[in-house]
Amino acid sequence: MIRPLGARVLLKKVEAEEKTVGGLILTSQSKSEPQFAEVVAVGPGTEEEPMNVKVGDKVLFAKFGGTDVKYEGKEYTVMPLADILAVIE
Question: How far apart are CA 59 and CA 23, in angstroms?
């Protein structure tokens, strides 16, 4: 498993909806990158930036934040805590 260091988190992106609220089906070209993800692992944080998310949280993150990685056939994003905008409750 990937273990983030410092104030970083490991995210698994949530798949984009294939249908709009109005019922239109989206083609693969019109889908945007998801900005919602589930926290898979968290680093220990730092004195300046303690961790305020936990494994299992659903979060909203900055559109171009993080580094995408592929590990054991699965895609993840390693992201600084500062790029996480909100926890979805």
Answer: 25
Instruction: Average the pLDDT over 19-39 and give the result.
Output: 63
pTM of the complete model: 0.78
How is 17-80 classified by DSSP, letter by letter? PSB-TTSPBPPTTTPPPP-EEEEEEE----SSS-----TT-EEEE-TT-SEEEEETTEEEEEEE
Query: Tell me: the pLDDT tens digits for 54-81?
Result: 999 999 998 888 999 999 999 999 999 9
- Look-up of token digits 């900055």: 62
Q: From CA 26, how far away is CA 10, in angstroms rounded?
A: 28
Q: Which residues contact 79 (CB under 8 A, 6 or more apart)?
A: 8, 9, 10, 11, 61, 65, 66, 67
